[in-house]
Amino acid sequence: MVRYSKGAFRELVRDYDVDIAYTPMILADVFKSSAFARQDYTTNNSDCPVVVQFAAHNPTDFAQAAELVAPYADGIDLNCGCPQKWAYKECIGAYLSERPEAVQDMLHAIKSAVNIPCSIKIRKHPSDMRKTVELVRRAEKMGVDWITVHGRTRHQKSTEPVDYEAIRLVKESVSIPVLANGGIFSISDADTMYYKTAVNGVMSARGLLQNPALFAGYAQTPLTSVEKYVNLALAYGTPFFILHHHLIFMLESVMSSVERKTFNCLSSTPAILDHLLFYYGIKCTL
Ligand SMILES: Cc1cc2nc3c(=O)[nH]c(=O)nc-3n(C[C@H](O)[C@H](O)[C@H](O)COP(=O)(O)O)c2cc1C
User: Fold this and answer.
1) N or C: which end of the chain has fewer CB within 10 A?
2) Which residues does 143 contact at the CB level (< 8 Å), separation at least 6?
3) What is the mean pLDDT of residues 63-84?
4) Is 7 annotated as a binding-site member?
């Protein structure tokens, strides 16, 4: 998740039964050409398995970026799902979910460039599921190791229900593992997804931001996970605004509206630590 699924958060969710963690989407052209941009991705021995996700609009950028990162990654994913207008204009993200040939070319390039597992993360086609089926079949032929499908179109809001039928169709159209994404906020949501689509796994985004312990069966963020996250974030040198945003998500279900107003206005890491000590007895030191 852009801005969020960095090292500290990946380490946190692994403690709560997440099997595979992805990096935020990284622009392949910037990554391959800028040593400075490459510093934004760091990993370590416990960050495993980690999938590095790239956004790319041509095979060369994608393959070169993947080649650079492959020694430090367990898998490479091509983002074919980002719905933002700027991304569509740049011919990346969800633009690719409507362009099976372009995806095929990029997968051909990456399969020749690296020798680690590769995947794509797609959205359902806005109007014609036959195009989605064509896309996933081509991807399978090109040798991707799994496919993640978000059961909403790029035009849909994340509050709209996911299309289980579309996800099931993707699952039935290929023989490789399929992961389902969209609307997983609890173990019971994951069970419903398995039941309705027969997929091989599920991926959660907003659910995990709100409750990093969801796959371990917690109904809401345990305070121990807040403490763990803050200690990890401090150890990783996480910038204030990322720490702050994560805690706003994690504490959403716990904070009263009055407390939330105070918390949202905090402007430094020491102020956050004071707040956590005062309201929750959570002791973390810089
Ligand atoms: C803050 C945020 C950042 C996201 N960043 C990415 C990203 O970098 N790559 C990606 O494939 N999807 C990204 N997404 C989309 C999610 O992966 C997911 O497809 C979408 O939120 C639906 O899943 P959910 O209902 O579990 O949230 C992001 C979503 C959110 C809320």
Assistant:
1) C
2) 107, 111, 118
3) 98
4) no
As beta bridge partners, residue 119 has 77, 146
Q: Which atom of ligand 1 is nearest to the CA of 53?
A: 9
The number of angstroms, rounded, from the C-alpha of 124 to the middle of its chain's C-alpha atoms is 17
Closest residue by Cα to atom 6, ligand 1, is: 1
181 assigned binding-site residue: yes
Residues with a catalytic annotation lie at 82
CA of 166 to the centre of ligand 1 (A): 18
The residue written with tokens 């995990």 in the block is: 208
Distances (CA, A) of 182 to 41, 158, 193, 207: 25, 8, 9, 9
Atom of ligand 1 nearest to the CA of 183: 25
CA 244 to chain centre: 19
Judge whether 206 is annotated as a binding position.
yes
> What span, in angstroms and rounded, lies between the C-alpha atoms of 173 and 162?
18
- Residue pLDDT, tens place only, 79-123: 999 999 999 999 999 999 999 999 999 999 999 999 999 999 999
Average pLDDT across the chain, whole number = 97
pLDDT in tens, 175-197: 999 999 999 999 999 999 999 99
